[in-house]
Specification:
CATH architecture: 3-Layer(aba) Sandwich
Number of strands: 5
Strand order of the largest sheet: 1-3-2-4-5
Helix content: 10-25%
Shape: globular
CATH superfamily: Glutaredoxin
Strand content: 25-35%
Number of helices: 2
CATH class: Alpha Beta
Length: 107
């Protein structure tokens, strides 16, 4: 998997959400994580996100900057605070809460 950048810039004066998705090649979990992340962003913040996919099989030194310990991992750099979510991102509810697109509902 090459490093890909999917950018939808700014919309309606809102700043874009900056995301880095760290993966290990084109494994099923890596592909699922990208598809799930893109779907959630398209549905919940269309036109207001930027995804950079970083393949650590090709560039392992890039893991150090964001202290990546497990793959796949998505890091939201903007807006602050920085947030990290590990896994294939298949749990939409946890992904929405993790990206701060939805508040957690008390059980």
């Amino acid at each position: 998997m090459k490093t890909r950048v999917l950018s939808n810039g700014k919309a309606n004066g809102h700043s874009a959400m900056s995301l880095k998705l760290y993966v290990a090649g084109q494994s099923p979990k890596s592909l699922a994580a990208f598809a799930n992340l893109k779907r959630v962003c398209d549905e919940n913040c269309p036109g207001r996100y930027h995804i950079q996919v970083i393949d650590l099989l090709k560039n392992p030194q890039l893991a150090q900057g964001d202290q990546i310990l497990a793959l796949p991992t998505v890091v939201r750099n903007l807006p602050t605070p920085i947030r990290k979510i590990i896994g294939d991102l298949s749990n939409t509810e946890k992904l929405l809460v993790g990206l701060d697109l939805k508040r957690a509902v008390a059980a």
